[in-house]
Each structure stands twice: as C-alpha cells, then as structure tokens.
Write a structure and sequence with these properties.
Elements (H helix, E strand, L loop, with lengths): L1 H23 L18 H13 L3 H23 L4 H31 L2 H18 L10 H10 L4 H20 L7 H16 L7 H21 L15 E5 L16 H4 L6 E3 L33 H13 L5 E6 L1 H11 L7 E5 L19 H10 L15 H7 L4 H6 L8 E5 L18 E2 L14 H11 L13 H6 L12
Parallel strand pairs: 1-2, 1-3, 3-4, 4-5, 5-6
InterPro entries: AB_hydrolase_fold
Keywords: Membrane, Transmembrane, Transmembrane helix
Amino acid sequence: MREGRWRRWWPLAATAALVVLLAATNAVPTWPGLIHLVALPPLDQFTDLRILLSRASSWPAFLVLLAGVAAARVALMAWLLGGLDARRLRFAALFYTVAFGPVLLAAFADATAYAVLYSRLFWPAVALIGVLVLTLGPVPWQGGSRLRAAVVLTWRRGLRVEVMLPYCAVILALGAVAERVPVLTVPLVPVSAVATALAIRAMGRPALRRPGAVLTALVAVLAAASLVFVATRGYDEPEPGPPQPGSLLILSGINSASGRGAIHATDVHRLGYRCEQVYYFSYAGPGDGQPQRDATCTIRTGAPYEPSDTQRPFDEQVDLFVEQASALPRPLVVAAHSHAVWVVWEAVATGRVDVDALLLVGPFPSTPTGYPPPHVNAPGRVFGDLLRAAAPATDLVRFHFDPDTPAARELLGTAGAAESILAQPLPATVRATSLPAATDLPLMPDDWQLDVERNGCPARVAHPYLPKSAAFEDAAIRFLNGRPPPPCPPWRDWGAVLVRPFGVPAGQALR
C-alpha cells in the first residue's frame, strides 16, 4: 500500500528536487515565488511564465522552453491523475491550454507592473491569478473524465473551498516566510510540494454537504472585508501649518503636463505657503508661465510643457531642474512626485544645486527588472517585445507610455538605474523625508526606505493621488515644523509581504 502511494507522488517529489537543483545552480532565480513552481495549477503555469518572460533571451529560446515545460506539466498532471494514458494526457493538455490565455495575461501584467513601476497593473494581475487558482485549481482532481464535466463537478462541490482555502493560506504563509527570510526559500520548495500533495489527496474525500451555502458565506465575508478595508483607509485633514519662509518648488512626475499632475493640486496653503512663494517646475524649461489648470496657484514661471517633454533624456531633465531652482528665494523646499524624485536627487546629491529640504512623494527606490532595447537578444527579450506591442493600449486609460523614449530607456529599461541615483548620499545640510504609497510596496523587492532623515509610514493612498492626500499634507506639515511623525502600524507592509511572491523575479533575486 505504501509502495503504491509513493508511486503516485514520486514525480512531484522529483519535480521539487529539480527545482531545488535549478535554484542552487542559479539556472532559475531564487525569489519567494520559487515555491510556486510545485504549486497546484494554474499557479505553477503562472510561475513558469513569470520566469520565462524575465529570463528568456530570444523568441526561439522562449518557445522551446515553453514547449518543454508545458509537456512536463501535462505529463506530471496526468501521472498525478492516475497514469500516462491517452485520456489523462488529453485532459491535462486541454486544461493547461484553456488556462494559458488568462494566465499569460496575468503574467504579462505582473511583469509590466515591475518594469514600468505601475501598481495599478500588479494588483489586478494578483487578483486574476487568485481567481484562477480558486476556480481552476480544484478542477483536475474531481474525478471527471472530461474537462467540462470536471468543471461542472467543481462548481457543484462549491469549488472545494474546504480544501482550497487552507491550501491558499499555507501558500501565502510559505511565501511570506520566504520573503522575510530569503535563506529559507529553497528549503521551502519541498514543503510547498508536500502542501500540494496533501491538497490533491484531500480532493479525493467527500465534499461538504452544503457547498453552495459555504461558498455564498465566503463571498459575503470577502465582500464585507473589502468594504471595511475601503471604509477605513481615509485620513483626517490636518490643521494648517504655520507660515513658512522662503519658497516651495513643485515637480510633477512622468506623463504630466503643465498644471496637470496630482502634485499640482497639493494644498500649498495648508502647508504654510502663500501663492507668491510657490513655483512649479517645467519639463520644457524656463519661461514666462504655464496654464494653471489643476494647480492651486497661478503658474508664473516656466514654459508650457506636455507629457512628451517628461520623456526627454534624464540629464536634460536634471539640467532644467538646476536652472529653474538655482535662482529661487531661500530657504528652498522642493516637493517631488514619483519620477521627479530621481531628477531632484541626482541634482542635489551631486551638488549642482543647493536646497534646504526635500519632500519626496511616492518614490521608487529601485528599477527592479528593466527590459532590453528593440531587436536585442538579452534576458527579457520576449517581454520587451510584448511590452512594445501593448504600449498603444495605454492610451485607453490615459496613461501614454512609450518604452523606448529616452527617459524610459535610461531609467525604467535599465535595471538598477534608480539604485545608482539614490546610492549617492545627499549633503548633510539637506533635510529630506519620503512618503511611499502602500499599494506600491510590492514593486520594491529589496527595500522601500530611502537614506533620508525621515521615512514616512506607507500611506493607504493610491500612487497618483498621494500628493493631494491628507496623509501627505500631515506628513509634510510635521516634517517642515520639526514635529514627530504619527505612529506607524507594524502591519502596514504585511500586504506587500504576502503578495510579493506573486511578482516576477526582481531586484537582487533577478541579478
């Protein structure tokens, strides 16, 4: 009996051993998502695609590896279903074929989020793969001889939530441990395989008597938790700060335009500044003023600029900042959002302009993945080509992105570019504070803190809205007036710890 049981599970054990060997020899990157290579489908397929998109250096290599991995996945599922006969092989092949489209979409969105630092792609990708795992994960193990019949059985049995929920909890916990203690990542691969085997074995037991009621209760609990999460993420508006001396220079991020950036709408009066003290940076250079649009104050300086101006070469952007900041009244406080953080840091750290304080809003400490130039065979070639093909679709969501503009190529396309900029220390006389968005934390695989005087508690505000949020206003007022920051809950980054294993290999793990 024991020999028969071992006969069923040895291919899964061999797969886990192979993953350990590949990780030990650096054939695959060691990152928290490694444990998903021996997870239930389609999470295993999702992980295969994440690795192939980030590591394949050419289309032929990608297609050959994809075919080989797919064949191995089909054979493994067929064996776990009972043997390598034609019926089971056909079932497994059809399952992975049906799952491939949405899984590829999730993997591509995941990789894109890391490459262009856009968390609004990452969270939908994680949600999509979560739905696919919960709905498709139990399908192969319900005993149906045909895929359609197995899907029907799965729904009749309430998606086997009594098995899938504990299994997903275990996978999340293992990923969190691997994220917090990277040295345990490889040893956790066999543990993940054991969890997968136990879940498959549990699928063979009778389902709950009232699976529909349990599934309905689960949906109700998730809906209630979502409502509570949304309802509790607001911030109270802070009391206006006292009058500030000198001037405030505001820089918007990539793809902004004159008066059309979130930071333009910052309530500068609440920070303690009068409009005559406030200046707005222009990516088009010096000039006699720009359209006010959403800006709190009249924009009296700088030339009107459009989103295309924010894509000019990085060195030119730094030159323009130095030129526009040098003549402003001191003490000078600079507020920079997102991409502009790199521009300001480069200028200040290299001593090209003197400032007194920096308010860094929504900074990204790293560019963790990058992508190769067009027609260049290098790791990430397939992803880069897909990114360029999909770029026109960004116009549909009013986020125009061209991966080969000078700024995108120098910063986002070059892994480690942001780290090189931020590794330069600021002058000792410059005070600086950083406030990241909590939703951006999964895209920061190594660390979210900068080498500044104060790293603010990650705010529960979406990246685009952070500069005009009460969270930023409160953090800025406290910092400018030497008041301590509010307490930061220790659980504020737990969400990122749980979901980062569902990202692509990035940062130090990729390099």
